[in-house]
Design goal:
This protein is α/β, with parallel strands linked by helices. The chain contains five helices and seven strands, in the order ααββαββαβαββ. A seven-stranded mixed β-sheet has the order 3-2-1-4-5-7-6, with helices on both faces. Helix 3 links the parallel strand 2 and strand 3.
C-alpha cells in the first residue's frame, strides 16, 4: 500500500497529463448510470476528474494520496485506505471507483465495504484493469454481491455498473 501511495504522491502534479484523457473516456461511458442526487463516494478520486460529472450530488472524495487530494476541488476529501470506509451502513446513494481496485491488497474487502455503505438500489460504477492478476477475483466478487446491470470491455479496463439489491 505504501508503494501505491508513494507513486501517486510522486506523480500528483503530472496526474492530469498522464491519466485524465483515459479516465474521462471511461467516466463518459458510465456517466448515464451515475446517481442523479444524494451522496456519492469517489474511491481513489485522485485529483477529482470525476467531480464535474457529479454536479447535482454531494461528492465525497477518498484517496490514499494526500498530494492528489490537495489538487481535488471536492468540498469533502478524506485521505484514507479504502478497505475500511468511514461511512455508516446504507448511507451512500452511489460509489464510483475508476481503475483502483487492482491496486488494493484486498479488493474483495473494498467491494464488501461498498455493499455495506450503499443504500438499497444504490449504484456502484467500477472499472479495473482487465490484465490485473486480481481481475477474475474482482469480477467474481462483484457478481456474488451485486446485480450487474452493465459490463463493458474497454481497451485496458473492464467496466461495471452494479446495483445493490437487498436479498
Amino acid at each position: 500500500m505504501n508503494r501505491t501511495k508513494n507513486y501517486y504522491d510522486g506523480i500528483a502534479r503530472g496526474y492530469a497529463r498522464l491519466y485524465h484523457e483515459e479516465q474521462k473516456k471511461k467516466i463518459e461511458l458510465l456517466c448515464p448510470f451515475f446517481p442523479k442526487e444524494g451522496i456519492v463516494c469517489d474511491l481513489g478520486s485522485g485529483d477529482g476528474v470525476l467531480n464535474s460529472y457529479l454536479e447535482k450530488t454531494s461528492v465525497i472524495s477518498l484517496d490514499l494520496s494526500f498530494e492528489l487530494l490537495s489538487l481535488n476541488s471536492s468540498a469533502c476529501k478524506i485521505c484514507v485506505d479504502i478497505e475500511i470506509l468511514p461511512f455508516q451502513n446504507e448511507s451512500l446513494q452511489g460509489v464510483c471507483s475508476f481503475t483502483v481496485l487492482q491496486d488494493t491488497p484486498q479488493p474483495e474487502s473494498v467491494i464488501k465495504e461498498v455493499w455495506r455503505t450503499l443504500k438499497n438500489e444504490g449504484i456502484f460504477c467500477v472499472t479495473f484493469l482487465k490484465m490485473s492478476q486480481k481481475a477474475k477475483r474482482i469480477e467474481e466478487t462483484l457478481l456474488e454481491n451485486f446485480v450487474v446491470e452493465l459490463r463493458l470491455e474497454e481497451e485496458k479496463d473492464l467496466l461495471f455498473v452494479c446495483r445493490k439489491i437487498e436479498k
